[in-house]
Amino acid sequence: MIDCHYLIFMRILLIQIRQDAILQHEYKAIMEKMQLRSSELISWNIFMSLTPPEPIETFQAILIGGSGAYCVSLWNIPQELEAITQVVRIAYARGIPVLGICFGCHLLAHIFGGEVQMDSFRQEVGTFEITSTTIATSDTLFSQLPKKFWAQEGHKDHVVRLPKGAIHLASSALSKYQAFRLSEGCLYGVQFHPELSKQDVLVRYQMYHQDYQKNQHDGFVSDAGSSDGQNDLNSLAMGICEAPDAERFLLLFKKNIGKKFF
């Protein structure tokens, strides 16, 4: 059966903050989970240009992806982050839905007055259980997910304070703010990676294999793992499971574009 919603042509901007092989992997994973054509998902590689490829008003939604090498807490790419910030503020003011994933979630929290801190001791790498908050039962998207569900994670930055007026939607044992939305406008941040299946995670870990080796020497921590015992690829693989409910989130977001989110 053909999904009639899929036949509606969309234009979604994906802001990518990567300079490695994961760039294309992230794009493909998001395109597949959202059931989009390549002509509907437009990538803006922030390291190639500080200006979006097309005017913001031509897009029906904006996504901000993850980043293996950069952290909002460090603000180590200021020009690029300021360029994204400007676009997000314009989109939010115009009512264009915005979704931030992992790094994107951290950036949205920062932009609107929240606080992000690095805490490698509480980092999550692998598959973790997410618990929705009570208020999430009235949220357009999270109300369609189970109270508890599994999701793929890969981060050491954490949102430690939400923007004023933000709605807290989900938590995990190690990271309290797994999801939030602003009380006004269509803007969501999710700490977990809804674009990743179990196989996607394994592919990503394999791509980052050299980083695992590098971690042993200089303590570098990326969203692929760390140097504190989690850098063994086989051990990581054993702890990964499927997370179908989390994967549904991107499609739920897509199907509500153009509707009232809450």
From TrEMBL:
Organism: Candidatus Uhrbacteria bacterium GW2011_GWE2_46_68
Cross-referenced Pfam families: GATase (PF00117)
Key words, A-Z: Glutamine amidotransferase, Transferase
Assigned GO CC terms: cytosol
Record lineage: Bacteria, Candidatus Uhriibacteriota
GO molecular function: transferase activity
Domain Glutamine amidotransferase: 78-198
Keyword Transferase appears in the UniProt entry: yes
This protein's record includes keyword Ligase: no
InterPro entries: ChyE-like (IPR044992), Class_I_gatase-like (IPR029062), GATASE (IPR017926)
Highest taxon of the lineage: Bacteria
Record-given protein name: Putative Glutamine amidotransferase
